[in-house]
Amino acid sequence: MDNAADFVKSWTKLTKDWNAQMEAELAPQLTVGQLEVLELMLAHEPMKPSELLPHLETTPAAVTTLLDRMERGGLVERKRDENDRRIVWVTMTALGRTEVQRGLDVRGAIANHSLDRLSSHNRQLLVYLISKVAGTREVSGTGERQVNANEGTNEETKETQNNNVESSVI
After folding, report:
1. Helix %, strand %, coil % for the chain, to 5?
2. What's the pLDDT score for residue 115?
3. Main-chain phi, psi angles of 68, to 5 degrees
4. I need a labelling partner for 89 at 20 to 30 A (CA). Which of 27, 153, 160, 164 fits?
5. Residue 102 clears pLDDT 60, i.e. is over it
6. Are 75 and 59 in contact (CB under 8 A)?
7. Is residue 148 within 8 Å of residue 136, measured between CB atoms?
8. What pLDDT was estimated at residue 156?
9. Angle, helix 49-56 to helix 32-44, in steps of 10 degrees
10. Tell me: the pLDDT tens digits for 104-137?
């Protein structure tokens, strides 16, 4: 097998295993898709249903169905805008806030369980390489910087860290 086929086989198995574990551990209150919505809302609440579309890469009808289920489950509320009744705002309920935190903890534990098989250096290297493959790192001058990084470090520190990781690849 070539590298691409090996990568696809390993990546497919990993994501299939992670998704199965996530669905099992989040049930019965939450699904992976609902966790994704709640996580978005954690960062951007309140949101219009249409604002979820570019993040979820689905159809308006699917978002409506998902929000209907989440509302019935007590995770979100939809309210009409007071000034423009055509606009609907979606907000998390107290249960939604509890469940999003539980979901993030579950996801973190599942990922950490897999990453525990690697040394600290290899974990850092894996994250670096996957971000390169995923296109979430871009070349900027002589070093690289992570796109949308929220780590609070300055660009010079990131460049030094990336160069250190890059030289360990070679």
Report:
1. 65, 10, 25
2. 92
3. -60, -45
4. 27
5. yes
6. no
7. yes
8. 43
9. 120
10. 999 999 999 999 999 999 999 999 998 998 888 7
Give the tokens for residue 130. 């996957």
Taking the C-alpha atoms of residue 51 and residue 78, their distance in angstroms, rounded to an integer, is 14
Q: What is the DSSP string of 84-119?
A: -TT-EEEEE-HHHHHHHHHHHHHHHHHHHHHHTTS-
Cis before 28? omega within 30: yes
Beta strands in the chain (DSSP E): 76-80, 88-92, 137-140, 143-146
Helix, strand or coil, per DSSP, at residue 146 = strand
Q: Which residue has the tokens 């670096």?
A: 128
Average pLDDT of the residues in 152-168: 47
Whose tokens are 């992670």? That residue is: 18
- Adjacent-strand bridge partners of 80: 88
Residue 150 has pLDDT above 80, yes or no: no
If one counts every other C-beta atom within 10 angstroms of the C-beta of residue 5, the result is 9
The DSSP 8-state label assigned to residue 153 in this structure reads -
* DSSP single-letter state for residue 87: -
User: Where on the phi/psi map is residue 135: left (φ > 0), alpha (ψ -120 to 50), or beta?
Assistant: left
